[in-house]
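// run 5 | inverse folding | seed 20
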């Protein structure tokens, strides 16, 4: 089994065995924490050899820089089937995450395991975005001297 794609993105879809990814990202900006992402997706494409036909269990973890989970792990069952002459089979899937809460600025990781074997990780960072200071009450001009 080989991991071909693992991407945090705004959205993704699988249509007719084709994986389409919108806005792959590894850097998120927020003005405060905790930061809650209303919706994001993880796009995955796995390639299996014929000997790996059958059922598999996928598990996805989102962890902070210390390895602590920031959400409950997501799990899915996969069935890998082959055509009569196929040497390999690819499975594309999209894991939608609603309300991902990131408690602090810093580094995070999305870790993927299949059949309890870690097959890949992707890092991403939540960066503080400072808002510009509001203009002075007198229209942004220097204070008058008396």
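// decoded
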């Amino acid at each position: 089994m080989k991991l071909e794609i693992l991407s945090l993105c705004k959205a993704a879809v699988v249509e007719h065995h084709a994986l389409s990814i919108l806005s792959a990202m590894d850097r998120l900006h927020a003005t405060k924490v905790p930061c809650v992402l209303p919706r994001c997706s993880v796009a995955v494409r796995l390639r299996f050899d014929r000997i790996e036909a059958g059922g598999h269990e996928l598990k996805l973890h989102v962890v902070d820089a210390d390895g602590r989970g920031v959400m409950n792990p997501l799990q899915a069952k996969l069935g890998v089937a082959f055509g009569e002459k196929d040497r390999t089979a690819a499975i594309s899937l999209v894991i939608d995450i609603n309300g991902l809460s990131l408690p602090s600025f810093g580094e995070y990781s999305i870790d993927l395991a299949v059949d309890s074997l870690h097959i890949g990780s992707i890092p991403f960072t939540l960066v503080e975005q400072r808002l510009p200071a509001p203009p002075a009450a007198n229209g942004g001009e220097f204070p008058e001297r008396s």
